[in-house]
Amino acid sequence: MNHISQFVWLIPVLPLIGFLANGLGRNYLSKSVAGFMGSGVVLGSFVLSLLVFMQVQSGVTMNLHYFNFIQINEGITIGFDYKIDQLSALFLLIITGIGFLIHLYSTAYMHEESGKDFAKYFAYLNLFVFSMLLLVMGANYIILFIGWEGVGLCSYLLIGYWYKNNHYTDAAKKAFIMNRIGDLGFLLAVFWLIAKIGTIQYDEVFNAANLSRLSAFDISGITLLLFVGATGKSAQIPLYTWLPDAMAGPTPVSALIHAATMVTAGIYMIARSNALFSLAHHTQTIIAVVGLATALLAASIAIKQNDIKKILAYSTVSQLGFMFLALGTGNYVAAVFHVLTHAFFKALMFLGSGSVIHAMGGEQDIRKMGGLHKHMKVTSITFLIGCIAISGIPGFSGFFSKDEILAGAFSHHIALYGVALFTALLTAFYMFRLYILAFTGSFRGTQDQAHHLHESPAAMTIPLTILAILSIVGGYVGVPEALGGHHALATYLSPVVPSAEHALSHQTEYALMGLSTVLVIGAIAFAWFRFKGNQAEGPATGFGKILENKWYVDELYEKIIVQPLKKTASFLQSILENKVIDGFVNGVGKAVNYGSRQLRWLQSGQVGAYILLMVIGMLVLFIIQLFL
Amino acid sequence: MGTYITFPELFILLPLLGGIIAFFVSSGPAAKRMALFVSVLVWAIFVVALFYTDRTKYIAYNNVNYLWLKYLGSNYYVGLDAMGRMLVGLTATAFPLIFIATAKNNVSHPKSFYGLMLLSQAGLMGVFCAFDALTFYFFWELALIPVYFLCSKWGGEKRIQATFKFFVYTFVGSLLMLIGIIYVYLHTEPRTIEGGITAVHSFTVGSFYNVALTAMEQKWLFVLFFVAFAIKMPIFPFHTWQPDAYDQSPTPVTMIMSGIMVKMGLFGVVRWLIPVLPLATKQFASIAIILSIIGIVYASCLAMVQDNIKRLVAYSSIAHIGLMCASIFALNPTSVQGAMIQMFTHGINIIGLWIVVELIERQTGIKNISALGGLAQKAPTLTILLVIVAFANIALPLTNAFPGEFMMLSGLYEVKTWYAIAAGLGVILSAVYTLNMIQKVFYGHTNDLTQTVKDIAWNEKLALIIIVAFVFVLGIYPQLMIELTKESVAYLLTTMR
Amino acid sequence: MDIQAYIALSLTLFTIGVVGVLTRRNAIIIFMCVELMLNAVNLLLVAFSKMHALSPTAKALPTYASDAQIFVFFIMVVAAAEVSVGLAIIVMMYRNIHSVDVNFLNRLKN
């Protein structure tokens, strides 16, 4: 028993304490105390995670059992267990590290809120970190699910943070419900596992003996259902529409939850279950295709959006699609790698956009920005670094992870590669469209806003700077062999996540890298010439309009799911419930009533009639007595 | 005959005597205080009783068996088994909560109100303790009748209509059950009772469990019993009395009905239906499950279109009860265990919801979701507590409803895949209507009606905080309840083998 | 005389009584018909009593022959009481509604 394992339980409990303290004390705590405590507990978790990470890096993994969560006689036993291995330790670092930076950033960003709301915000944020930590630390699918739904709850609470606005609470509701649809799929997969092998402990599910008890159909079904769960949480087709709407929340929330951590939960879960998914080839194909389709769809929408956060949201959906493409091609390490780098540069860009919105006094439309570079140097430069990283310019983190995904797709099927490359070009294009429109040229906002433009305080720029540095260097943990590296990440993860076997020669890899680099630079140049004059685009027509309206997917869902459901429910209420069932019940009552009213005529009050009936009755009795 | 008084007797007699005395105390506030005192006392005794569970040592504290109608072979036989203990616990916990939460309400004729409330508690306790079919039937009706008076006297505008429907409906069910009980009784073995008297037949649970009935007889009896319990729970399509009754009853009574009385039906199925009629249960289980599952989806759909907040909660309750009923009939350890613990948690959670609903209705005078809004600004504490209870109601993990729901769905899945899928749809829909309700009532801007709403008073806060404590403690460590009830689960399943 | 003849006579009287009760509306006549039925029964009782007195069983049981006749006395006493009460009711009825027609006595209906 090594000493660090005795403190592992503190990693999620610290944010929980922060949540309780901020939540219960929200009326009494000053803003600085609330902010300090909220960030401090996450920093504490980060330090512990770092210690754990170092321990794990030296090859020690931990399985910790605390108590039996559910134990049924003649049934399943589910422990409240943590599993700390290479994969979860890495995620611990991402969550607490980026989590801390975003907490720090929030102390400045949310400073205009009232003290009560400020503490509430930090309480929710701490609760989120707690849930997310549970999600990655759990040693079985139920602990994962607790965190899984917990982050959904926090996402709901934080999207609807400004609860007076009905559009925001609508978005929150949508996010939660769409997540729940995915969660049902996830739960069904868990039930399937329980029914077939009677356990959901990772170590037991993934051992060869138990896997061999599952038929091919079982494995396909379970993995497919798990993937349904992942589409909800990680915003893939068909359940992705909540994520762009989720931008209603405060910007740091978008950075933490809807870019860096929560939405990668699906990738974590599939990477964690790689033993299952590797056996399910059909599911893998589906995942790759769905991931790629999502990536393309979201990237195409992002081209035509004008809300700075919406662009980043669709970009996130698109990048998540890339990660699923990696998962589907069996390239789990690449997916995790991209989670890591994406967490850096996307959190950076969200925080950068927050800084912009802060400076613009709440304005989010990039058509009304422009020339911000002059006023906010740090934000602008860090944002540019983010854009370069996501576009995949060599030397920046995004290049390495994205390239690995593309190479994996290429070795799988050339069509996958083609579409993925095209999507990568779109990514570079819309990102630089955003950058050029917002930061270069001349300012297009109101006088008032122009007057107000300023660089954000240090609490906001420091996280930006740190993340910018990470966006540059983050990729060097996974330098491929072709470039003379030895892919430290793959080596590190190898006990949990097997590396994909690259059949590609170094020459092919060089060619692919060269091709994508050249094309990406071309796309950036195209964006530069297209938008450098800042000429506003006219109203979109034709295909552009479809893109601007997000392929009308929301409207489609409204038409084919929401409306029919509402109609059915109203039909059930007005016809089946009120007329048929209740009608029948009341009908029985009415029939009895009617029947007795008819029988009442027998009670005429005529003495003679009564006597006659009596005599007849007696005669009948006599006859019965005599003859029967 | 025991030489000392036993726990089940205390649970029944204290509220009974308290209720009768409450009619004659000097003033209304005194009656209110007495009701609170008696219910808290019962709860304290229940807590003590939790430590006397060892069957080998403490059977004398937990069982009492008097002859009362000796020539009929009926005993006043009450006791506590694992499941009974849990439901007694629910009753003992719920009543103090109800009294605390409504401590500031002023009812007309408080003496009879609180007297009847305590009488219904005595009836409910009796139902959960009875080990004799006639005793069971006696308490079944004793629980119903005070509630009838409570609804018809203190209810809303259409109370007479709603109460009449409720009463006639459940009473029809009760009579069907009585016929069934008598039929089974007439087929029980003779047995010798104390004093050399031989009764021809017997009402005790033991002789009911050993009765020899043909498959055909069991079928008919199953229908009789099942309809009675299905009306009480209620499950589709016997449920139409419930929204009306919940809507029109005074809220404390609604809490009793939705928190505890509906569990009588589930309890009846577990104690008096499945072990007595195992053959018919095997045959009809799938029909019962299908009806329940239709009920889940159906009630969830209806809950989505309700504008009246009380009816919304009522339909939500129908959906939850449907899930429990389906899982009991799934008859595997996982699902039955899940249903067992859910009986308790659902009772606690729904009382929490009603406390909030009552508060809203009392302050604004309306129960239409669409006319409300912005309460979160006016009543933040209330909002937080409600959100917790509401999320417990939709079974978020780490709240008390999650382990139960997880086990129930898992057990249903083992029976048939699509059972779990259909029941799972209810889970999604429950999120839809619950979040809708939260959004419409609490979020957004205030309007004229909600402008004057005040935050929660100390008594309601206390009650809700206790409920929230239950939500989290049992959500994080559900094993507490599983340990309490696993004996009954195992027993029920052995009767089916 | 043969017992059949008594039975026939009393049946006839009883039937006349029944028919009278059923068909007439005048309370007094109904009343008389009721008396007629009572007396038909009385007649039958006396006839059977006489018949039994001749049977051998009567030697062994001393009251065997007289039981029925005591019944008759009882019936006559009760009938007399009934007549007084019944006639009183009819008189009150006549005072109130100036009629003795029973069809007016349907107030119980509502």
Summarize the structure.
By secondary structure, chain A is mainly alpha-helical. Chain A has 26 helices and two strands.
Q: In angstroms, what is the radius of gyration of chain A?
A: 31 Å
The sequence of SSEs of chain C as H and E is: HHHH
Approximate strand percentage of chain A: under 5%
| Widest sheet, order of strands of chain A | 1-2
What structural category arises from helix and sheet content of chain A?
mainly alpha
Describe the oligomeric state of these chains in a short phrase.
Answer: heterotrimer
Average pLDDT score of chain C: 86
Strands of chain A, count: 2
How many DSSP helices of chain A? 26
Q: Flag low-confidence runs of chain A.
A: none
End-to-end CA span of chain A = 94 Å
CATH class of chain C: Mainly Alpha
* Principal-axis shape of chain C: elongated
Helix content of chain C: over 70%
Structural class label of chain C:
mainly alpha
Q: Biggest sheet of chain A: strands, sense, closure?
A: 2 strands, antiparallel
Biggest sheet features of chain C = none
Number of helices of chain C: 4
The amount of helix of chain A comes to: over 70%
Structure write-up:
The complex is a heterotrimer of chains A (628), B (497) and C (110). Chain A has a domain at 558-627. The longest helix of chain A is centred in the C-terminal third of the chain and has 47 residues, at 553-599. The radius of gyration of chain A is 31 Å and the shape is globular. In chain A, helix 3 runs antiparallel to helix 11 (251-260) and helix 15 packs across helix 18 (397-412). Chain A has helices spanning 10-24, 31-57, 86-109, 115-137, 141-159, 166-197, 202-205, 208-212, 216-233, 242-245, 251-260, 265-272, 274-277, 281-303, 308-328, 332-359, 377-391, 397-412, 414-439, 447-452, 458-473, 488-493, 506-531, 542-548, 553-599, 607-627; strands at 62-71, 77-84. Chain A is built from 26 helices and 2 strands. Chain A has a two-stranded antiparallel sheet with strand order 1-2. In chain A, strand 1 and strand 2 (77-84) form a beta hairpin. Chain B is mainly alpha-helical and 497 residues long. Chain B has 2 domains: 1-276, no CATH class; 279-497, no CATH class. In chain B, 74% of the residues lie in helices and 4% in strands. Chain B has helices at residues 7-22, 28-49, 55-62, 82-101, 110-129, 133-154, 159-186, 205-209, 215-232, 241-248, 251-273, 278-305, 309-330, 333-364, 375-378, 380-393, 401-415, 417-442, 458-476, 479-495; strands at 63-69, 74-79, 191-193, 197-199. A two-stranded antiparallel sheet of chain B has the order 1-2. A two-stranded antiparallel sheet of chain B has the order 3-4. In chain B, a hairpin with a 3-residue loop joins strand 3 (191-193) and strand 4. In chain B, helix 2 packs parallel to helix 5 (110-129), helix 6 (133-154) packs antiparallel against helix 7 and helix 14 packs antiparallel against helix 16. Chain B is globular. Chain C is mostly helical and 110 residues long. Chain C has a single domain (3-102), classed as Orthogonal Bundle (Helix Hairpins), CATH 1.10.287.3510. Chain C is 75% helix and 0% strand. Chain C has helices at residues 3-23, 27-53, 57-60, 67-97. The chains are: A mainly alpha (628), B mainly alpha (497), C mainly alpha (110). Chains in contact: A-B, A-C.
